[in-house]
Amino acid sequence: MKEYKVPYCTIIISLATFAYSLFVCYEINGAFFGKTKIIQLEEYGGITFEHLKNFELWRLFASQMIHGKQLHMLYSVLSLLALGIFIERHVNFVQFFFIWFVPGTIGTLPNHCINFDTSATRPQISWHRDNATTPI
């Protein structure tokens, strides 16, 4: 019988994402659940091209943990738990961390470097731009 491996990395990343995202939401909105404006996330780890030019590399990690919408965060954490528990049975802690971190960073960088915006997800950028008022 195969020995059961506890998925420590999955649990740590999931709990950290849950806790940090709720903390950021509470700091900004005064409530644990609610919507946060994209621009407000910059102080807590949102990325702009300027931050990367200044080698603020901690933002690559933090930006994957903050969410503008807490419902999105809950879905992300539940998905990470569901997939991570399965994947981490086959790889070690460090390998799983890189499986989470590298694709997350690759997915995050184009958003921030091309759009020069601080956001957690593409739909938020699209919504923000579609609803922006521009003078005629």
Automatic annotation (TrEMBL):
Gene3D superfamilies in UniProt: Rhomboid-like (1.20.1540.10)
Pfam families in alphabetical order: Rhomboid
Peptidase S54 rhomboid domain residues: 55-117
InterPro entries hit by this protein: Peptidase_S54_rhomboid_dom, Rhomboid-like_sf
Name of the protein this chain belongs to: Membrane associated rhomboid family serine protease
Residue intervals passing through the bilayer: 6-26, 71-87, 93-114
Acetylation is among the record's keywords: no
Keyword Manganese: no
